[in-house]
Amino acid sequence: MNSIGELLAAEHILLDLDVSHKEQVFEAAEQLFGGRHGLSRNQALNALAAREALGSTGLGAGVAVPHARIRGLAQAVLAYMRPRTPIPFDAPDARPVTDIIVILIPEHATDQHLKLLAEVAEMFQDRRFRERLASCSDAAAARRTFTSWPE
Description:
The protein is α/β, with parallel strands linked by helices. Helix content is 41%, strand content 19%.
């Protein structure tokens, strides 16, 4: 199994998310992670917003990977979010985002951070993976799509 599949819990998969801009995505991540995993209130929200202020985490082709290093986080935590309607994310190709992977990583886990970002980029370059993920109607099916990649 790949690293994303190992780390992505079904309860961290939000399909049909009612958001219209990236700040609401960060708020949804805060609701998922805030107060858990050793995070203080608003720590995830503030870290994601601060990282995004440095430059967009929109990759293009409808994918964004907001990520942040978190002091005190014991292990990486991830979420997959699919907005109900595509949202702007200041991606290099100016396309709105349909797939979002949120990655929170321990402050000093540089190698793991880079590996996760590379793995997400490789996954979403795979047209069949994107098609399978888009057809998922529930969190369990989406998680199976992540855990079974590459086929």
